[in-house]
Please model this.
Amino acid sequence: MTDARSPDFPPFRPRFPWWGGDLQTVANRFLAVSTSLAPHRTESLSFALRDGTGDTLLASLDRPASPRPGSPLVILVHGLTGSAESLYICSMARLLLERGRSVLRLNLRGAGQSRALCGEHYYAGRSQDFRALLALLPDELTRDGLVAVGYSLGGAMLLKYLGEEGTASPLRAAATVCAPIDLAITCRHMMRLRNRLYHGYILGQMKIEATAQGAVVSATERAAIMGSTTVWEYDDRFIAPRYGFASAEDYYERCRPSRFMADIRVPTLVMAALDDPWIPGALYQAYDWRANRSLMPLLSGQGGHVGFHGTGSRQPWSDLAVARFLEQG
Model:
């Protein structure tokens, strides 16, 4: 499904040998993709949060070798157990830099290089951190405007933020790629037997991330983290009580993006693949996109989870579609 308001873009066609949602999903682990952004310049930025936790977010600011004057800064937000160095983040950054745009690759609280500087943890509903980041950006980076792109969990957080802010958001435009717009349904889907390898891997990475150097967890919390046998149990035993939710079910319901999407007033491209093995395509098909003219769905029958490795270009189809959408803004 391609909405008439979405960028005029050729349909996705997978390239050999990445046929099917699973191969598209795992391709990122096998493709020889460099994270180097040379000849573009990269510098590290730190953002001390003013919420009393003492936590500091780290980000990478990439400046193009040949900047295009007047272009808004693009903020890229990674997904679950990802970071500013994730291959899909670097791939998108490289394309934008080649087109003259500056990019800020954010590490969410407790992710990537931010882990050592944060006692707290990110989660899908922690939109307040993104709001705080925007307020901390120096004028030199914001004077030409801001846009944002969120992937998977980062996309869910971005949609929640956009709905909460409505017309007050300083973003000119936004895009999400493979965001779980219903957290409970997505978690149950991930826990299906056919996804046991994905689920086991993600849960293992979450445990490592949550207990790595810098994380402040009590002995009880550490036992809850390490003893969790599912992502649902991890969220129920650790995330929910730690961050003021009654249960995982309560956390998922209060933070699901579909509760907030009707109030989004920033032009927002929402991309997904209907064969995504992690997120049910039915969630996107059932959503009433016509009810909010600010939301622009771009739904492909194929592409997997943050895959979109297609014919005609080594650049993921999602990168090209998002870049074209941002050009129209």
User: Anything to note?
Assistant: The chain has twelve helices and eight strands. The chain has two domains: 21-182+257-328, 183-255.
